[in-house]
Design goal:
The complex is a heterodimer of chains A (about 300) and B (about 220). Chain A is α+β, with helices and mostly antiparallel strands and about 300 residues long. Chain A is about 70% helix and about 10% strand. Chain A has ten helices and four strands; from the N terminus they run ααβαβααβαβαααα. A four-stranded antiparallel sheet of chain A has the order 2-3-1-4. Chain B is built from seven helices and ten strands. Classes of the chains: A alpha+beta (about 300), B alpha/beta (about 220). Chains A and B meet through α1 and α8 of A and α2 and α3 of B.
Chain lengths: ~300, ~220
């Protein structure tokens, strides 16, 4: 066990030595991989942040039903029953107009102004919690509720959040396409790097086969090289994303001060960072594996 | 140990290198394989290491039918063979030491043990002082000895040598034969192909003579 481990470690050391010996060429490869991966990673990062923003502002969607000023207590009871029995509604809450005014006073700090009013301008209202559904279903429900008798107006809160959400879905597909294409590019880069390595080490491979090397022994350094190159590329991508974020955040800070809000872009989470690195390691390994499978069998000692 | 039975080897070009060769080599035997160049000596050695496969007949090494071995079993056959190639097949991108280390790395020896073995092998062929040199800086005779060190470092039970004294002057050739004799003393089986008369004069050694693909 330890012996096998030491052997693998030895291969890894040799691979890293070779990588650092190639200096510029190896560095450029890693940079190209890093840049290729940093694009989808950065876009993903921005989307994640937008997603956070949506979640922060929308919460669960609700529909506010503002009743006509003329409603009587029995109308309210009837409406409450009707709403409670509706299949698309999870719960209702009644907000009497007096309570609404009180809340307004407290939350806006306009108590002086409101105190000066002759009468309460606010209607009674229901807050309807719909069962989970997509934006369209919610909109249909809103239209239906608006037509109920004694209902003045039905407002779907967080409609904009739904629109943004739809936009984000669009963006996510974009990221997915970009990530797939650039992953292919990464595999291709590794494939070619390993191909060149196999060609330059033809003699070594031939001799190794002649003195009893198994195919996995011969394959191993190339696979490790691909994986190590992928890992370093992934680290470069992470650094690019992190540095861009830092730049954006300094600018965003000035902006959010103007709007008296506090909004900063959050960096990639630990889990996402780990996924990025594992994914780039895997792609490097895969590219190397394909290359080795394609080229190694062509080298047979004579 | 090595046994050929009616072995025929025909190359794709149609050239027949071996035309029904039959012989046996016992364990611990030292045998010379002689004949003019083109007589099929190299082909015969390649068949033992399964670098080439026979078209008909059987090649047995250690009781294994080498001609029918699957690709995955080849490495384990070859680890049991020490092969000294006519063209040396040394690697010039690494030191003398690392060239000899390669077979041990392939078999997965641990670091300390393999270091000792490499130095012991280099000592046997008299190259211990050159361990850090690049093989390209060695003379022809030294390169040949390095090739021997690499072949014996793994302590194989069978040693195959293809024209080991080919381009060397008589003194070097004698030195190399002395190394082979020492290896023979400790019980290894050796098959040495040569057309070097000075080597063949060594009396008392069994000779297989090939002529145009047929054993004489």
């Amino acid at each position: 066990m330890t012996r096998a481990f030491a052997q693998h470690l030895g291969v890894l050391r040799a691979v890293l030595r070779r990588m650092f010996a190639s200096k510029l060429g190896g560095f450029l490869n890693i940079l190209v991989i890093g840049i290729a991966l940093s694009l989808p990673a950065g876009m993903y990062l921005l989307l994640q942040n937008a997603q956070g923003l949506v979640a922060q502002f929308s919460g669960t969607p609700q529909i506010s039903l503002f009743l006509e000023m003329s409603v009587k207590a029995e109308d309210v009871e009837r409406l409450r029953d009707q709403l409670a029995r509706h299949p698309a509604i999870a719960g209702v809450e009644f907000v009497p107009r007096a309570q609404a005014l009180e809340q307004l006073k407290q939350s806006t700090g306009l108590s002086d102004l409101i105190g000066g009013l002759q009468q309460n301008p606010l209607p009674d209202a229901f807050i309807v919690h719909p069962k989970p559904g997509d934006a369209q279903a919610l909109d249909t429900l809103r239209g239906e509720l608006a037509k109920l008798p004694k209902v003045g107006e039905a407002q779907l809160d967080s409609a904009w959040a739904y629109k943004l959400e739809a936009l984000l879905k669009f963006g996510r597909i974009g990221v997915l396409i970009l990530a797939s294409l650039l992953s292919l590019a990464l595999i291709a880069i590794t494939f070619n790097t390993i191909r060149l390595q196999i060609l330059t080490q033809r003699d070594e491979i031939e001799v190794a086969k002649l003195i009893g090397a198994t195919n996995s022994f011969i394959r191993r350094p190339f696979l490790y090289f691909g994986a190590a190159q992928g890992l370093l590329g992934g680290i470069v991508a992470w650094l690019i994303a992190a540095a861009s974020l830092l730049l954006l955040n300094t600018q965003l800070d000035a902006l959010s001060q103007l709007y008296a809000s506090q909004f900063v872009l959050r960096p990639l989470s630990f889990g996402d960072s780990l996924s990025l690195l594992l994914f780039s390691v895997y792609l490097g390994w895969l590219g190397a594996w394909l290359s080795v499978a394609r080229h190694l069998s062509q080298i047979e000692p004579r | 140990m090595i046994s050929f039975n009616q072995v025929i080897k025909r190359y794709p070009s149609g050239y027949e290198a071996l035309k029904g060769v039959t012989f046996d080599i016992a364990e611990g035997e030292l045998v010379f394989l002689s004949g003019h160049s083109g007589a099929g000596k190299s082909t015969l050695l390649k068949l033992i290491a399964a670098i080439e496969r026979p078209n008909s007949g059987s090649v047995l090494v250690n009781g294994q039918n080498v001609g029918a071995l699957k690709g995955g079993a080849l490495p384990y056959l070859r680890r049991n063979l020490g092969i000294i190639f006519q063209d040396h097949k040394l690697l010039f991108d690494r030191s003398v030491f690392d060239n000899v280390l390669l077979p041990l790395q392939i078999c997965g020896f641990d670091h300390r043990e393999s270091g000792k073995r490499v130095r012991a092998a280099l000592d046997k062929v008299g190259l211990l002082k050159r361990e850090k040199a690049n093989p390209i800086a060695l003379s022809g005779g030294e390169q040949q000895r390095l090739c021997i060190a690499r072949a014996i470092v793994n302590r194989p039970s069978i040693l195959l040598a293809d024209e080991p004294t080919g381009n060397l002057d008589a003194d070097y050739a004698r030195e190399i034969m002395a190394i082979f004799n020492a290896f023979h003393q400790v019980g290894a089986t050796l098959l040495i192909s040569t057309h070097d008369e000075s080597v063949l004069q060594d009396s008392g050694v069994r000779r297989l003579v090939l002529k145009e693909g047929v054993l004489q």
